[in-house]
TrEMBL record, chain A:
<protein>
    <submittedName>
        <fullName>ABC transporter permease</fullName>
    </submittedName>
</protein>
<keyword id="KW-0812">Transmembrane</keyword>
<keyword id="KW-0472">Membrane</keyword>
<keyword id="KW-1133">Transmembrane helix</keyword>
<keyword id="KW-1003">Cell membrane</keyword>
<feature type="transmembrane region" description="Helical">
    <location>
        <begin position="189"/>
        <end position="209"/>
    </location>
</feature>
<dbReference type="GO" id="GO:0055085">
    <property type="term" value="P:transmembrane transport"/>
</dbReference>
<dbReference type="Pfam" id="PF19300">
    <property type="entry name" value="BPD_transp_1_N"/>
</dbReference>
<feature type="domain" description="ABC transmembrane type-1">
    <location>
        <begin position="107"/>
        <end position="312"/>
    </location>
</feature>
TrEMBL record, chain B:
<dbReference type="InterPro" id="IPR003439">
    <property type="entry name" value="ABC_transporter-like_ATP-bd"/>
</dbReference>
<feature type="domain" description="ABC transporter">
    <location>
        <begin position="8"/>
        <end position="258"/>
    </location>
</feature>
<protein>
    <submittedName>
        <fullName>Peptide ABC transporter ATP-binding protein</fullName>
    </submittedName>
</protein>
<dbReference type="InterPro" id="IPR017871">
    <property type="entry name" value="ABC_transporter-like_CS"/>
</dbReference>
<keyword id="KW-0547">Nucleotide-binding</keyword>
<keyword id="KW-0067">ATP-binding</keyword>
<dbReference type="InterPro" id="IPR003593">
    <property type="entry name" value="AAA+_ATPase"/>
</dbReference>
<keyword id="KW-0813">Transport</keyword>
<dbReference type="GO" id="GO:0016887">
    <property type="term" value="F:ATP hydrolysis activity"/>
</dbReference>
Length: 326, 361
């Protein structure tokens, strides 16, 4: 396990540096000038040159990248702007603050969204999938499959906008979604995010229902499930201890991907419900040409995927003893 | 002397499945008895209804898709239609089953100790520790070396033969009265096959459990069974003691099966393609004798009869078969069939030998 984790962490770090380099060089090619942003609206050429120098933009690109990379580990001083302590992912001239601080500010919103909705869709999705599989071909199964078809054809901006319009504004059943930190008031936290959670979960539940149903149906016809019945295990034990066990790996796979994508920023959800999470941040940074910020959000999304990949792979070995970590 | 109540008695068993293509009559009026301490070998080509029969005894068919009729009595107690808890209490406890492929039949997610122990806990109310100790004891009994260590290993860490031993340990953990072994050696190589069969025989001598041994290999039957039931298209076509059925077989189908075995008493696994033609459809079975489209002798027995009327196996015990040929004809024809078999046998044996050598090379 330790060897696996070490090896994968190193590989992950290398991957992230490569992704950082690629995004860095790509953005460098974009027709935007951070120095001009830093310098402000009225910007005489001398000041611009000075700003360029202060930001290190007069250096060759790979030197700039190395400086950026060093900043991640040891922090960095921007002349005239102040110190950006490690991990310094760059300095945003739009917010006039280190990029990292803004991300850390926004991350709890996104994480809260992710946790809440994923708990809901995991429970409902797997639950209905199991029920559908156990009632194969019967009414419950058909209802579940129609429901998941409808669910999966929905779009967040559509359902979300409708929900906002009717539930919040027309009928005033629930207050406008807002973010209250969990540490401040857990109940308010849950209440404030309930609507986005439900909408987000509604879209994803269908995937889990379908996936759980199909693997569960396969599992139920497995020889070892028959053996379990042949040795007198009760119906419930057969399902929970044996059949369900075999569906865990595929569920972990899609769950890992979904979590990673959500952490990287639930762009549409956050926009629909006006929540200030990482997803909105990335959109805003595109609009504002805030390259350091944009690059940091891209890196965050990449890091989420890389990290969850490792977690899922480790989980496989926990779930299935035939899987050997290497 | 037959006892008044047989230990296991299957009477006029019918099993059919509703499928998209129609109703599959997998078992169609099958009767047999099994006594304590004896082994009944059920033989027949693949698809003849052997597994379906035994899953029906254990009540393992999906009730929604399966119609089952007839009687299955264990010491007089009716099992067909018994309620769920009764059956759950019986399975793994009084009647245990081992399956063909021990790799897929064991759960990949649990240690063998746990899989053996949980049967013991469920039926005997044992504690975790007792169950574990019992699992170790069982593993030792079925000849798994180093059982104390291996009890905590997973099935994939065992070889095929060892896995089947684990299956047997699991089946026997509650000292069942009846063990159903569905092709227990088919997935194993020849030397391991013999070991597993010996193990089953030894265990039977120690515990007196009745065994139903399903196989398509008459060599296996010759080695282990006291009685034999030959199945064709969901019916019994011949029945008797092992000596009767293998020594003086009466049904043309049994002759066909026998000609696939190189030498009686060996278990060299020659692919079973003994009888020309293919097994009949179970959805629209041919009228008359189900074997007539593949049989060489309707002319002798009376073609009208063979084609229109179903021959029944004699209901009383003893050597019986379902064929219209006279006993005299059967004896004569068998001799001819045997002669033909001898030539074929030499060839098959040679082929087997060559394949064997090729495998080694
Ligand atoms: N669950 C099922 N649904 C439909 N047909 C089945 C089912 N199980 C078995 N059969 C059919 O019943 C026949 C007998 O099968 P089986 O008892 O497994 O044969 P075998 O003698 O090889 O063990 C086969 O034709 C098989 O296709
Ligand atoms: S009854 Fe007729 S068709 Fe059937 S096995 Fe005997 S001879 Fe052949
Ligand atoms: Mg079978």
């Amino acid at each position: 396990m330790l060897r696996f984790l070490t090896r994968r962490t190193v590989a992950a770090a290398v991957t992230l540096v490569i992704i950082a380099a690629v995004t860095f060089f790509l953005f460098f090619a974009m027709p935007s000038d951070p120095a001009r942003l830093a310098c402000g609206k009225v910007c005489p050429p001398e000041t611009l040159a000075q700003a360029r120098h202060n930001l290190g933009l007069d250096q060759p690109i790979f030197v700039q990248f190395l400086e950026w990379l060093a900043g991640v580990f040891v922090g960095r001083d921007y002349e005239g702007l102040g110190h950006c302590s490690a991990p310094c992912l760059g300095y945003s001239f739009v917010n006039r603050a280190p990029v990292f601080n803004t991300i850390i500010d926004r991350l709890p919103v996104t994480i809260s969204l992710t946790i809440g909705s994923s708990v809901i869709y995991l429970i409902f999705g797997v639950g209905t999938g199991v029920i559908a599989a156990l009632n194969q071909g019967k009414a419950l199964d058909k209802i579940a499959s129609v429901a998941s078809l409808i669910g999966s054809s929905m779009q967040i901006y559509f359902v979300g906008t409708l929900a906002m319009y009717f539930l919040v504004f027309q009928w005033q059943l629930i207050e406008r979604p807002r973010y209250v930190p969990f540490t401040e008031n857990p109940l308010e936290w849950a209440y404030g995010l309930l609507l986005p959670w439900l909408v987000l979960a509604m879209i994803s539940t269908a995937n889990y229902t379908r996936m759980t149903r199909s693997t569960m149906v396969e599992q139920l016809s497995e020889d070892y499930v028959r053996t379990a019945r042949a040795k007198g295990m009760s119906g419930r034990t057969v399902i929970t201890r044996f059949a369900l066990r075999g569906t865990l790996s595929p569920i972990a796979t899609i769950f890992g991907v979904d979590l990673a994508v959500l952490i990287g920023g639930a762009i549409i959800t956050e926009t629909t419900f006006s929540l200030q999470g990482v997803g909105r941040l990335s959109i805003q940074s595109v609009v504002n040409s805030d390259l350091p910020m944009l690059m940091a959000t891209v890196l965050l999304a990449a890091a989420a995927i890389v990290v969850f990949n490792i977690i899922v792979d480790a989980l496989y070995a926990v779930i299935d003893p035939r899987v050997r970590l290497s | 002397m037959t006892p008044i109540t047989p230990f296991l008695s299957v009477q006029d068993l019918h099993v059919s499945f509703q499928t998209e293509d129609g109703i599959v009559k997998a078992v169609d009026g099958l009767s047999f008895d099994v006594e304590k301490g004896t082994t009944l070998g059920i033989v027949g080509e693949s698809g003849s209804g052997k597994s379906v029969t035994n899953l029906a005894i254990l009540g393992l068919h999906d009730p929604e898709r399966t119609d089952i009729g007839g009687q299955v009595r264990l010491e007089g107690q009716e099992l067909l239609g018994a309620d769920r808890t009764t059956m759950e209490r019986l399975r793994g406890n009084r009647i245990a089953m081992i399956f063909q492929d021990p790799l897929t039949a064991l759960s990949p997610f649990h240690t063998v100790g746990r899989q053996i122990g949980e049967v013991y806990r469920k039926h005997k109310g044992a504690s975790k520790r007792e169950a574990r100790e019992r699992a170790i004891e069982m593993l030792e009994r079925v000849g798994i070396p180093n059982a104390k260590v291996r009890v905590d290993e997973y099935p994939h860490m065992f070889s095929g033969g060892m896995r089947q031993r684990v299956m047997i340990a699991m089946a026997l953990v509650c000292d069942p009265d009846l063990l159903i072994a569905d092709e227990p050696t088919t997935a194993l190589d020849v030397t391991v096959q013999a070991q597993i069969l010996d193990l089953l025989k030894d265990l039977q001598q120690q515990t007196g459990t009745a065994i139903i041994l399903i196989t398509h290999d008459l060599g296996v039957v010759a080695q282990t069974a006291h009685n034999v039931l030959v199945m064709y298209a969901g019916r019994a076509v011949e029945r008797g003691t092992m000596r009767e059925v293998l020594g003086s077989p009466r049904h043309p189908y049994t002759w066909g099966l026998l000609s696939s075995v190189p030498r009686l008493g060996t278990s060299v696994d020659v692919p079973l393609r003994p009888v020309r033609g293919t097994p009949p459809s179970l959805i629209n079975p041919p009228p008359g004798c189900p074997f007539h489209p593949r049989c060489d002798y309707p002319e002798l027995a009376g073609p009208e009869l063979c084609r229109t009327q179903r021959p029944e196996i004699s209901p009383d015990a003893g050597h019986g078969d379902a064929c219209y040929l006279t006993l005299r004809q059967k004896t004569d024809l068998r001799t001819v069939a045997h002669a033909a078999q001898t030539t074929q046998t030499t060839q098959t044996a040679q082929t087997a030998q060559t394949t064997h050598i090729k495998d080694r090379a």
